Amino acid sequence: MRGVGSASGGGPAVEIRGLVKRYGRATAVDGLTLTCARGEVTAILGPNGAGKTTTVEICEGFRRPDGGTVRVLGLDPADRALRPRLGVMLQAGGVPPAVRAGEWLRVVARFHADPLDPAALLDLLGLTGHARTPYRRLSGGQQQRLSLAAAVIGRPELVFLDEPTAGLDPQARHACWDVVTALRDAGVSVVLTTHQMDEAEKLSDQVVVIDHGRVVAEGTPEALTGAERQLRFRARPGLNLDELLCALPPGSAAKESPSGHYIIEGQVGPQLLATVTAWCATEGVTTEDLRIERRTLEDVFLELTGRELR
C-alpha cells in the first residue's frame, strides 16, 4: 500500500498505565497496563467481556477512563489533534444505509489532506463492482471491507481495527490480511482485536491477552507459543493417562482436551512417538490423526482464559 503515512516521532504508539473503566457496579477494565510499539501490529485477544473493545474505544477517544492514563501517539485520546492521524474501523460500520459504497469512500477522502485514491482502495478490496451499490445492500463482508477502506484512506499513522475479518469468506479475509501487512510495511502502527487465533499469529508482532480487564500475557507469537512441540492424536475418550505417563520419559505431560483429543508434551521425538504408539497398541487403542506440531496461539489462549463459554 504505497503512500500510507508512517508514524513520526518517538515513543510508543499506545501507552496505557493502570486503566480502569466501570459501568455502574461492573468493572470492564481493571488496572490494565500495556504498550503498543510504533510501526508494529499489536493484536489484543480476550474472551467476550474481557474488556478489549472498551480499552480500544478509550484509545480512540470514544470513551473516557475512570482511572489510569492513556496516551496515543503521545497525546490524550481526547485531543482533537489526533483525529487526522488515526484510522478507526468500527464493528458497527457507522455508514449511512442509503449511501453508495464508492460515494462514501469519496466523502471520507475529502476529510483528509492527502488521501489515498478511493478507486484504488475499492479495487484492492474487491469492491469495484459494488461501487454504486447502497451500503444497506452490501453483504456483511462487503460492508466490513468498505469500513476497512475508510479507516486507511487518510494515510493514518495509527490504525485501530476491531474484528476486521469477522464474517468474511477466505478470499476477503486474506485480502484484509494483505492490507494489514502493507500498513505495517509502510511503517504504520496497527492495533487490532480479533477472535481469530491464526490471524493474530500470522499478522502480529506483539500479542496481548487480556481477561477480566487485566493483561494476563503478552509477547511475540513465538515467545507465547514457545519452541516446544506436542504430540496430538484422537482416540476413544477416557484413556488412562496416568498409566500412559508411567511409560513415557520423565518430564512428560498428557491431557485430554476436549474429550477424545489427546495432547502429549515433553521431549517430543521418535522415542516418545514410538512409546505412545506401542502403549496404545498394547491397550487395544486405535489412534487417529497422529501428528507432531508446536503449540498454537489458540492453545495458549485457552490455557490462560479457560475453555468455558462466556
From TrEMBL:
Q: Which Pfam families match?
A: ABC_tran (PF00005)
The GO molecular function terms of this record are: ATP binding
The record's keywords, sorted A to Z, are: Antibiotic resistance, ATP-binding, Nucleotide-binding, Transport
The record's annotation in SMART domains points to: AAA
Which Gene3D superfamilies does the protein's record reference?
A: P-loop containing nucleotide triphosphate hydrolases
Matching entries from InterPro entries are given as: AAA+_ATPase, ABC_transporter-like_ATP-bd, ABC_transporter-like_CS, ABC_transporter_ATP-binding, P-loop_NTPase
Topology in the lipid bilayer = Peripheral membrane protein
Q: Where found, per UniProt?
A: Cell membrane
- Matching CDD domains, A to Z? ABC_DR_subfamily_A
**Main location as per UniProt:** membrane
- What is the scientific name of the source organism? Microbispora corallina
| Stretches assigned to the ABC transporter domain | 14-237
Protein name as annotated: ABC transporter ATP-binding protein
